[in-house]
Specification:
The protein is mainly alpha-helical. Helix content is 74%, strand content 0%. It has a domain at 31-95. It contains five helices and no strands. Helix 4 packs antiparallel against helix 5 (72-93). The chain is flat and about 70 Å long.
């Protein structure tokens, strides 16, 4: 009986520890830019351009949130910047150039 109880506890610990290594939403949190670069769809300059745009977006977002509320003009500007970033990512990933190792 003790062996069965100890075996079941060990099995329970392993079954609980396995999902804790990686969250269920991790695959959605990965940035598409990383996937495109690993697949060879983005070249280094394209990736650099996207990172620079992402950095500018984060700075603009920090400035907009600095005073505690985001005005409609700031929200519109942030939305436009994010939309531009998505369009550029799509354009870079769907051109015919390939990254050379």
């Amino acid at each position: 009986m003790k062996k069965f109880l100890i075996f079941s506890l060990i099995l329970l610990l392993f079954s609980v520890a396995a999902p804790a290594q990686r969250g269920s939403g991790d695959r959605f949190r990965r940035h598409p830019m990383t996937n495109g670069f690993n697949n060879g769809q983005l070249s280094r300059p394209e990736r650099f351009q996207l990172r620079k745009d992402q950095f500018r977006y984060k700075i603009a977002q920090r400035r907009a949130r600095r005073d505690g509320n985001i005005t409609p003009f700031e929200r519109r500007r942030l939305h436009r910047m994010k939309r531009h970033e998505r369009i550029e990512l799509y354009r870079f990933r769907h051109n015919s150039r390939r990254r050379v190792i």
